[in-house]
Amino acid sequence: MRPDLAAVTTLAARSPRPVVLIDGRSGSGKTELATALAPVIGAQLVRLDDVYPGWDGLEAASEAVVRDILGRHRWQRWDWAAMAPAEWNELDRAAPVIIEGCGALSRTSMALATLAIWVELDAATRKTRALARDGDAYAPHWDRWAAQEASFIAREHPADLADLILQG
User: Fold this and answer.
1) pTM of the predicted structure, to 2 decimals
2) Is the dihedral of CA 65, 112, 33, 141 positive or negative?
């Protein structure tokens, strides 16, 4: 087990039903961390990439974290091919949950979480990783998305809210 994963697992175990928020900018390594952690703590995993309502949807997804995912224990998938809302997905209220994506960690969501993690990585490496992962589908939207991230970060200061800051 990676050293950072062991530390996260220990911190998440503070609660019988951990609610873990993993935030960071695009390409920082949030998804990799969440994918590794979910089976270790037996968590349901909600990826905000499946929730963002389009390329201008960071704020809407951040609001959905509190209102829908943590409040109503459900989330609505965004169909990227149709560019439209899709089905609702129910969460088991008794099972641990991990929510990962930029916008997951806000002042409001932090109050409902067991553990909050910020994943940090330099801008050049993040961009290289994100574009290698998503290629031409993401490239034309990089600056647009980065501006939303910057706005969210300036308002919410998620790294300052985090219990743990990890390098991506």
Assistant:
1) 0.90
2) positive
Q: Residue 86, SS3?
A: strand
Closest to 8 in 3D by CA, of 122, 125, 118, 129: 118
**14-70 pLDDT, tens digit each:** 777 889 999 999 889 999 999 999 998 999 999 999 999 999 999 999 999 999 999
Q: Count the residues in the chain.
A: 168
Return the CA Rg of the chain: 15
Among residues 18, 30, 44, the alpha carbon closest in space to that of 165 is found at 30
Q: Over the stretch 129-146, which tens digit does the pLDDT of each residue have?
A: 877 887 777 777 778 999
Pairing of the two strands 164-167 and 115-120? parallel
Q: State how far the Cα of 111 lies from the Cα of 134, in Å rounded to an integer.
A: 32
At 48, list the tokens.
């905000």
Beta strand spans in 25-130 (E): 44-47, 74-79, 84-90, 97-100, 115-120
Residue 165 CB-density burial (10 A; 0-12 exposed, 13-18 middle, 19+ buried) = middle
